[in-house]
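Quick one:
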Amino acid sequence: MRGNPEPQPLARLEFRITKKKAELERIRLELKELERKRKLLAVAS
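Output:
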C-alpha cells in the first residue's frame, strides 16, 4: 500500500477472502473424509 500505514479496505477484504477460501478448503477435505467413512460404515453394516 505505497507507504500508507493505514490498512486499505480492499487489502483487508482480500485477506478475509483468502482466509475464508482456506477455511472452505479445509472443510471440503474434512467433508470428503467423513463421507468416505460413512460409505465404509454403510458397506460394513
